[in-house]
């Protein structure tokens, strides 16, 4: 069957010819952009903000911010001054030094960005925490990272078990009427009076920058450490893939609690000196279209689940808005269905460009570019400077059209530096032959386009968020009624997958809808709303291996009415 491809669209793009660049490009060419080419040292926050504040971009808007109660804008010069102030506050009142972990647990607001940049200017490692995390999730992350400083709000502070976190020395609270003592300080009060001159900590390219916790199929969430060197690729992909240009107004809908919200919500746009729109609050289709119209957004980066929700809200709403400002639309996080691409053509008259990458990869790896043909359903081609392949379980490259492990040749600039406190986990990502194994299965067609097929492991992608079944199972087991729990991703037309839990109850507990609701709520308040199973099914017993491991593969087969496969390891 011949696929209907979408031809490239004429325009003056940063990436003019994919093929030419793929054969000629060298990452060394990008390094000249940044200060280390002269001094050997660097700092991400300086390159993202101060560098522009010292040029013609001084009075250009760096940040447009809006939520239900605020509507503000900040120039590059203002962001420079405010982040310097934040840095001074961290230094003077939090004793923050290079390498310390500063965690930020708050909803999107200008203060979140200012605090993040301020901490980076001191050479600290920032750990962003998604605002929906509940106590268990917050504790795991602060404990593993041994965070020294936390920035949070009075509401979210209630979810921080401070007594159980001996490494945590200072908590800066962002809000009004803050009651202070030795440990709890009013952030804004000190920022107000702090000096706007700060001595930046110049670091090496391989020094820690940001710690993102993400889920695997086993164990607790792991801390993926990225270093300042990531800027090379974040800058270059913001140019080639996001195609950011001087006049653009850019909106990335992701929260900085996830990697998209830092790599392309903070670093990419600001490294390129772009005006960045940040919107707080909940998802409402009307508000989203209004954001595009009000700010005249030209480049929009979102996710398939969001597009599908907008699709579901109907095309009538769209007619109320003038969205002709949109120039370039992109997607990440889950498979972008051809149906969504067709919808994008119909309602925006724009191609939606899929991009593939992961928390661990720090920046884009396989993408669709404005200058190239799109094959709907394909993630596109590797960015210049990156080698991708499909390999078998022994690490051998497979020919086109064969399904296997999607792998990337080690050494791209934004590759994670390590897994916090877990070198063995880090090592387990790589084959001795130098391939990084993504955990995704895919194939490459004869034209070099990559096609996503699924996760190799049991990791669940729900509404673009990565959830480890083990974490949910562990939380379920803490519930007094639960004897056994197994968690799978169940295909869902809007969310990609939803979380489904199979639960066996302890003796003496009765199956009921009320109990289901209670168990669901238990995960919601203990872990996070997006990690709570939308479906719970009671079973007398769950399929286990003889060593007692829940066989999720069998649960999935039950759910989808598929053959259960080899059951030789299953207990009787
Ligand atoms: C996993 C990584 C990188 C930001 C968002 C997610 C899935 C990512 C795509 C895509 C199909 C995708 C993969 C990957 N994924 N992009 N374009 N098409 N699947 O980051 O939370 O680290 O999750 O997201 O399964 O392994 P993450």
UniProtKB/TrEMBL annotation:
Domain AMP-dependent synthetase/ligase: 50-416
GO molecular function term, any single one: acetate-CoA ligase activity
Entry keyword set: Acetylation, ATP-binding, Ligase, Nucleotide-binding
GO annotation, cellular component aspect: cytosol
GO biological process: acetyl-CoA biosynthetic process
PROSITE patterns linked: AMP_BINDING (PS00455)
Top-level division of the source organism's lineage: Bacteria
Residue ranges annotated for the AMP-binding enzyme C-terminal domain, each copy included: 471-549
UniProt-listed Enzyme Commission number(s): 6.2.1.1
One Pfam family hit: AMP-binding_C
Keyword RNA-binding: no
PANTHER family: ACETYL-COENZYME A SYNTHETASE, ACETYL-COENZYME A SYNTHETASE 1
Family: Belongs to the ATP-dependent AMP-binding enzyme family.
Protein name: acetate--CoA ligase
Species name: Heyndrickxia oleronia
Lineage, highest ranks first: Bacteria, Bacillati, Bacillota, Bacilli, Bacillales
